[in-house]
Amino acid sequence: MKVAILDDWFDTLRTLDCFGRLAGHEVTIFHDHIQDVDILAGRLRDHEGLVLIRERTEIRAPLLARLPRLRLISQRSVFPHIDVEACTRAGIVVSSNLHAGSPSYATAELTWGLVLAAARQIPRQMASLRAGTWQSGVGHTLRSKTLGIYGYGRIGAVVAGYGRAFGMHVQVWGRPESLRRAVADGHMAATSRAELFGTSDVLTLHMRLVAATRGIVTAADLALMKPTALLVNTSRAGLVEPGALVAALRSGRPGGAALDVFEEEPLRDPDDPLLTMPGVVCTPHIGYVTRDEWELQFADVFDQINAYAAGTPINIVNPEALRSARHDERA
């Protein structure tokens, strides 16, 4: 197959061991980020397979209509950035392993790294040391503080375990089944959403971004947080009401934030408020970006391409596409 890979910004994929699984395919890798439909259509019009790196590029109906040869989109995890219905109408198979039994440990580890970096003011202390002024400010200890987990799924459960290992009191809020799992794991269920926001010293978000969770954290929720509290988000920026976090930080509740996700990505404006506030620690959406994680993820992605090429597609999100006229013509 003629396969295109989008958004491999640092030309990382060809250095992975699993990249050898694409031997025999004609592979083109694009290293920049483009969302312009005209440019993407020009680049991809002759390709049969498309590899996406998570949600970096949106694939919507106007683009799909201009890709007459496209037969397969292969990726891993959730797919809010793909118009699956348009793919189905066009006979384009979407293959994505949702890895139900395996959390992203890389994201959980980064979450805890951000918690520690913010609590101990590590970026600020590094900047002070490099400036020749030695120590700058005083941080906080995590032990005996309260860690709030909003969304007790695969990653949230791992982060809760890290909090317990650091001697924190862990409380959870989420769907009833999530609360039952958290209690079974020995954690506390918050009595209400207001209690979660009002009593957590560190509050971290671990939910998928779907229609029901978009903007689920409101300005009113943030206003309940302590002036000393830290909000952590390594999931999706869209979980927070647009503009609410910057306004809340300016008002002093919560007192700080640790973020790996942003409303606009890639974020290249050095004057963005979140990058200039002293109480905010930021990283450029690197939660899942480790060599170990990518070997795991892209082994699945490349196996999906080979399975499709062999006539036995796997991890199909839209099986109806296999029965469409467009797919039949290409088979």
UniProtKB/TrEMBL annotation:
<protein>
    <submittedName>
        <fullName>3-phosphoglycerate dehydrogenase</fullName>
    </submittedName>
</protein>
<dbReference type="GO" id="GO:0051287">
    <property type="term" value="F:NAD binding"/>
</dbReference>
<feature type="domain" description="D-isomer specific 2-hydroxyacid dehydrogenase NAD-binding">
    <location>
        <begin position="113"/>
        <end position="287"/>
    </location>
</feature>
<dbReference type="InterPro" id="IPR006140">
    <property type="entry name" value="D-isomer_DH_NAD-bd"/>
</dbReference>
<dbReference type="InterPro" id="IPR006139">
    <property type="entry name" value="D-isomer_2_OHA_DH_cat_dom"/>
</dbReference>
<feature type="domain" description="D-isomer specific 2-hydroxyacid dehydrogenase catalytic">
    <location>
        <begin position="23"/>
        <end position="318"/>
    </location>
</feature>
<keyword id="KW-0560">Oxidoreductase</keyword>
<dbReference type="GO" id="GO:0016616">
    <property type="term" value="F:oxidoreductase activity, acting on the CH-OH group of donors, NAD or NADP as acceptor"/>
</dbReference>
<comment type="similarity">
    <text>Belongs to the D-isomer specific 2-hydroxyacid dehydrogenase family.</text>
</comment>
<dbReference type="Pfam" id="PF02826">
    <property type="entry name" value="2-Hacid_dh_C"/>
</dbReference>
<keyword id="KW-0520">NAD</keyword>
<dbReference type="InterPro" id="IPR050857">
    <property type="entry name" value="D-2-hydroxyacid_DH"/>
</dbReference>
<dbReference type="Pfam" id="PF00389">
    <property type="entry name" value="2-Hacid_dh"/>
</dbReference>
<dbReference type="InterPro" id="IPR036291">
    <property type="entry name" value="NAD(P)-bd_dom_sf"/>
</dbReference>
